[in-house]
Amino acid sequence: MKQVASKSKKQNPALENYGTMRERMVERQLAARGIRDPRVLAAFRSVPRELFVPEGLRASAYQDNPLPIGEGQTISQPYIVALMAQLLELRDQDRVLEVGTGCGFAAAIFSCLAREVYSIERRPDLAEAARVRLRNLGFDRVRVSVGDGSLGISELAPFDAIVVAASGPEIPAALKAQLAVGGRLVMPMGATHRSQRLTRVQRASEHEFDVEDLGAVTFVPLIGRQAWADS
Ligand code: SAM
Fold first, then answer.
1. Beta bridge partners of 188
2. How far is the C-alpha of 71 from the C-alpha of 139, rounded, in Å?
C-alpha cells in the first residue's frame, strides 16, 4: 500500500488534521470499545478514510457513524468494520471474499491483514469507482468484481474468510459451501430489516458449522438470488 497520508502530510495541512482525526477515531471509537487486535488497529491507522467518502463529506469521514456514498448505499461505521475484521481473525496468508464493496474502505482494511481480497459489488458504478480508488491508493491486493455476491465466486473458492457487508434473511448456502474448513464467515442476518444480528459462522468440518450471535446491527439489505428480492 502506498503511504498516502504520511507522504501528503507535509504538502497539505488539511491532511495533517485527518491524521489527528484518524488517531482519535482509533483510540476513542475502536480501542476504547474493545477492539484489541493490534493488526486491526494498525490497519485503521494506515487507511485514509477521508478518501473513501464523497468529497463534500470528507470533514465527517471520522465520525462514529455510517455515511452516504451515493445510490442509497453507505460506508459502514468504523467500529463495525473493525469488529468484523477482528471477528474474521485474518492471517497474512488468508484469501478473503467480501460481499458488498461499496466505496472499498473495508476491502482496503482487510487487504492490510490478508494476502488477497476478492470484493464483489452488485452496483456497477460503485464497483468501478471503488476499483479506481483502490488502485490509485495502491491497495493492489484487492480485486473488485460486479455481480450477485450472495452466490459468492465459486471459481475462486474456497476462502479462508468471508465477510458480508449487507444484511440477508439467512447465510447464503453458496457462501457456506465456499468457506474453507477452519474458515470464518461474518454477516449481518435477520428475518426482517429491523431485527438484524451480527452472526459469525466457523466451519468446523465438511458438514459442521458453528454459529454465534454477536448482537444487534443495522445494515443495508443484501439483494440477490440467495438473499432479499430486489423491490
Ligand atoms: N464495504 C463497505 C464499506 O467499505 O464500508 C460497505 C458496504 S455497503 C454497507 C453494502 C453494499 O452491499 C452496497 O454497496 C450494496 O450495493 C452491496 N450489495 C447489496 N447486495 C449485494 C449483493 N447481492 N452482492 C454484492 N453487493 C451487494
1. 198
2. 24
Give the residue from 101, 106, 139, 96 showing the smallest Cα distance to 123.
101
Q: Cell 475484521 belongs to which residue? A: 85
Note if the pTM is more than 0.90: yes
**H or E stretch covering 209:** strand 209-216
Residue type, 53: V
Closest Cα to residue 49, out of 76, 73, 80?
A: 76
| Given 76, 111, 119, 167, the catalytic residue | 76
Phi/psi at 185 (nearest 5 deg)? Answer: -125, 130
For the CA of 108, the nearest atom of ligand 1? 4
> Is cis: bond before 158, omega within 30 of 0?
yes
Rg (the chain; Cα; Å)? 17
- Point out which residues pair with 118 in neighbouring strands: 97, 143
| Domain boundary assignment for the chain | 2-217
Mean pLDDT of the chain: 93
According to CATH, the topology of domain 2-217 is Rossmann fold (3.40.50)
Does the pLDDT value for residue 7 go beyond 90?
A: no
What pLDDT was estimated at residue 156?
98
Q: How far is the CA of 10 from the centre of ligand 1 (A)?
A: 35
Q: Over the stretch 40-57, which tens digit does the pLDDT of each residue have?
A: 999 999 999 999 999 999
Q: Tell me the per-residue pLDDT of 157-209, one tens digit each, with 9 for 90 and over.
A: 999 999 999 999 999 999 999 999 999 999 999 877 678 999 999 999 999 99
Residues within 6 Å of ligand 1 by CB: 73-76, 99-103, 105-106, 120-123, 126, 148-150, 165-166, 219-220, 222-224, 227
